[in-house]
């Protein structure tokens, strides 16, 4: 996860480089339920409106929460499927807040209405992220439900009215990229607190439909538009938080942007980005799925590290000798191809290993969705055409 606003604010501030900070434990993204009322074309959890057997019970979730707390996990993102389809979602949220976690809810928003908004507000979520993948026509087609866009938009407004910190989550594809500026305008009109741009990852239906991924040129333009917007808003005194995920090349692209707009700060910015450290799957990000299986992140559901029914998360995470995890925890990661010769490997950490694995069967191959050119990453190397270049 790349906290764009934080980086941009610091870049503009002229402040000295703060010391690098090490988080106490990993942020856990927890897919509490796989069932969902939608069947989105890109869904990494391959969710559908059907009951999935063997999901963790409330008691099992509570027991795991205690363990996560002791392990100093700072934040939980409760996700799915559609987490609001779990009848005990409010009890889980209450318990998690009681234990002192930062608790985010990741929802498609279509099930938020007057009947449950009070329960959602009083559950005390620190943040509710609602997916919106383009204009009405695109979103409804992408999410395979007519009316989904309207319902998600209404949900955002309802959350705002009830004082809930709310934001939009947008998964970038070649098709919806032209709609990004309109989406950013909409976020401004709704006055939401946060905007999360998720690059497509190749898992579940997102892998089946990976041809929809944005071309490099498209991604570069989209990210520049996002940076410009974030910059302009900060200048105007607005404090909306912009965050991106699933493509750590965003940090390097920001460095290029800084070289153009704040050249005197660019070298320090580079150091700050190295402190940030790039992709943190298996290190500062962890995933528990609906059945209690632990994975290096949400997109590695084909790779199991253990199950919280048999072993505490803390012990699975701390004691694992899984080869993928050992590689993810290595500095630098044992990446190959373009990533191995990249002058920015210390910033992005080799980007997203799942995409490399899905394309080649080798988790250490180059990330096919890195949108930097060969010349940018290795000015002295032989020239090739990047895979996703349009
Ligand atoms: C799996 S969904 C679960 C929460 C809720 N059902 C929703 O759609 O917001 C979590 C988030 O991941 C995003 N997402 C799903 N599949 C993805 C993929 N293959 N690559 C990137 N983001 C993805 C969704 O758009 C959503 O914002
Ligand atoms: S992305 Fe979310 S809303 Fe869409 S099918 Fe998956 S879980 Fe459901």
Automatic annotation (TrEMBL):
It comes from the Bacteria. Its cofactor is [4Fe-4S] cluster. Keywords: 4Fe-4S, Iron, Iron-sulfur, Lyase, Metal-binding, S-adenosyl-L-methionine. Residues 22-238 form the Radical SAM core domain. Pfam families: Radical_SAM. This is Heme d1 biosynthesis radical SAM protein NirJ. It comes from Thalassolituus marinus. The gene is nirJ.
